[in-house]
Specification:
Layout lengths: L29 E6 L3 E10 L2 E11 L6 H4 L4 H20 L4 E6 L1 H5 L3 H12 L4 E2 L2 H11 L10 E7 L4 E7 L8 H6 L16 E8 L3 H7 L6 H14 L16 E6 L1 H11 L6 H4 L3 E3 H21 L11 H14 L4 E5 L3 H13 L8
Parallel strand pairs: 1-4, 4-5, 6-9, 9-11
Antiparallel strand pairs: 1-2, 2-3, 6-7, 7-8, 10-11
């Protein structure tokens, strides 16, 4: 039977048109949100050359993980506080007409039995969707955010992100990477810690670990110890014990060519206290290098102040005063273990890493973050 030709409008087949992908707008705003155990932090930024320009931000202590250590669940009051903060973030997204965003939740939601119920509650109340990310991605994004602070002389790099519910440590070997390319090699890690085979020398991740202790969870572990100095010492030694499985912990490391970068509210608060800032100034803190002696002096000062003195100290701030000693205990343990007398202070972290990763994937940044 002979084939029939369709008549009318279908007589001739429509040409197949292959649509070229629409290139991303190089000045369109991006957003990143980090919902941690203690804080909700958000940034809206536009690509600018090889970096980005922040156009809006928001940070609020929501204490999402309050009571989690004892109950294993997020409480109704903590979820309600968090949703109110997320509504403010949504209004900022709408104000800036943000289309590209990544909103993530970390340790509290990884551990809570009712985390999925909370994610659905957030979506119902705000229309925002939160991704609960794994520890490796959290560590990777923290590393990427610190790329601009990596020295061209650094051969061994330790990046430490002290969060509310966990602390991520990543040790990176940069010895095979030419000096000028070392910061850019860190940036390439946004695709994964397994760098694979590349025609150019790459940063090698020697080891990474996510310790399920942050400023809030470590404080809760020792809340029954009344003596301030005794509680601090116990927290510091207990945290160090959790590093036994981190391979660089067991090996002697050369001091020359080693850099440690700390990113967290603890590190930036210690830096602000060292500088005597009564009002926080990011431009003075981000990138500051502190000696171990300077860090010890600040921590001793905190201990001498006692709880009442710390509450009244404007350098610490209301949101940080109840958590500063547990964070300082972690920081002291790290400085005790590894062979350096300098710490690079990073006022950056997961949000900045999320922005770099999104913008790099879209190709709206110039080559590298520099």
């Amino acid at each position: 039977m002979a084939p029939k030709r369709p008549g009318g409008a279908g007589a001739f087949p429509m040409p197949v048109v292959t649509l070229a992908p629409i290139p991303p707008d190089p000045v369109a705003p991006y957003a990143a949100l980090d919902l941690g155990t203690n804080s909700c932090r958000m940034l809206v930024a536009q690509p600018k050359g090889s970096q980005f320009h922040v156009v809006d931000s928001f940070s609020k202590s929501v204490q999402l993980g309050a009571g989690l250590e004892a109950s294993g669940r997020l409480s109704r009051s903590s979820m309600a506080r968090t949703v109110q903060a997320l509504k403010i973030c949504k209004s900022k997204f709408q104000k800036h007409k943000v289309q590209r965003m990544r909103l993530v939740a970390t340790e509290a939601c990884r551990r809570a039995h009712n985390a999925r119920d909370f994610i659905r509650f957030v979506e119902r109340e705000t229309g925002l969707h939160l991704d609960i990310i794994e520890p490796e991605e959290e560590a990777r994004l923290a590393v990427v955010s610190c790329a601009p602070l990596v020295s061209v002389k650094t051969e061994q790099l330790l990046v430490v992100d002290i969060g509310g519910g966990s602390t991520e440590l990543v040790w990176i070997d940069l010895s095979r990477v030419p000096g000028p390319d070392r910061p850019r090699a860190i940036m390439r890690l946004h695709k994964g810690f397994d760098t694979g085979n590349h025609p150019f020398p790459t940063a090698k991740v020697v080891d990474w670990i996510s310790v399920p202790l942050g400023v809030a969870t470590l404080k809760d572990q020792f809340r029954d110890v009344e003596d301030d100095a005794g509680r601090f010492a116990l927290m510091s030694w207990y945290f160090e014990e959790q590093l036994a499985d981190f391979s660089p912990y067991a090996h002697e490391q050369a001091r020359e060519g080693f850099q440690i970068i700390g990113t967290s509210g603890t590190v930036t608060t210690v830096a602000a206290s060292h500088l005597g800032l009564r009002r926080y100034d990011r431009t003075k803190v981000d990138g500051l290098r502190m000696s171990s002696d300077q860090i010890d002096t600040v921590i001793r000062d905190y201990l001498n102040l006692g709880e009442a003195g710390r509450r009244a100290d404007p350098r610490i701030g209301k949101d940080r005063q109840s958590l500063i000693m547990s964070g300082s205990a972690i920081l002291q343990a790290l400085m005790r273990v590894w062979p350096t007398d300098r710490l690079s202070v990073a006022d950056r972290g997961l949000r900045e890493g999320l922005l770099y990763a999104q913008m790099s994937s879209d190709g709206v940044l110039e080559d590298g973050p520099f």
